[in-house]
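Can't paste images in this forum, so I'm doing it all in text. The chain is below; anyone willing to post the predicted structure tokens underneath?
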Amino acid sequence: ASSDTSEKSQPGAPQPGAPQPGAPQPGATCSFHAERPATLTCLRCGDFVCDDCRHGGKLNVCERCAASGVPERELDFPFADGRWTWTELVDWNVRLFKNHGLLLCAVLLIGGVMTYGIGMMAIMPVMFSFMDFSGNTAANAQLGTDPRFQALMILSSVPLYVLGIYLFTGLKRLCLDVHLGRRLEAQRLFIRPGLALKAIGVYVLIYLFPMIFGQVQQLVIQRLGINPLDPLFILGNLLVPVVFCFYHGPLLLAVPHIVHRPEDGVLAAIRASWRLTRGRRIACSLFYLALTFGSGLGIFACCVGVVVVPVFMQLLEVGLYLAIRAERRAAGEL
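Text version of the structure:
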């Protein structure tokens, strides 16, 4: 993204870091109709505009920005002109989180508790049917090597994973609404079955290889009798996310794409993510690595981190998708 601040400082040029729309200064007049009082400050360029320039007060941008070729539903996004920097993107997300983070966190907390509760209802019967409650800890310790137990645990965990994908796909839609200046409505968390199935398909295709790798890794550990507490083994496990971040990075935007354009299919969303990240794949991979470790840090920060960090990360991921998409559109690639 261009970081030419001199270009952005020109009068009337779109300002990616511009504040949210608000009431203009008292006595201000419209930049396009000097005889009319201004009712809003354009979200993108910062000019004073009247209600006629806002299409009857429906938009948060002026006529010039509205005629820039940006789809109407994306006009309120401050980087819709395709010019942004990582610093501006993070700053924008921080401001959005300050304004909407409480509601988003509440939605995730309530949805997460329901998801976890329903998911555990499928897992607990399997655990209880295999566990020895007579105090024989050695028998319980051997469950990890029992193929029947492992297979049933994987199958019983499917509802938890499916509900988790449903929850975070709905959360991404709420984050999309926030970025595009729409009214935040908690019921938007509940997505249609068709969109949920597409999101599940995207997640399966993206994470299938890492899941297979994880299962093979467990088999190797059992066959070779490797001590999981061995320092070299721990170091190797820490390096695994670093390696896989370069696999996930180019595919990072597939789920935000399917949420933004639900009419597209699973493969179309993955292809779109691959095209959008061209030229930024290393940056997106490092961004995914930061998301991974950021989520891990959230786990160690008790309940607050578990809720707050994922919400901010989802908000940032959706913002990155919109910013890169706008950048490609401005370059004539969409």
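The first strand starts at residue 40 and ends at 41. DSSP finds eleven helices and two strands in the chain.
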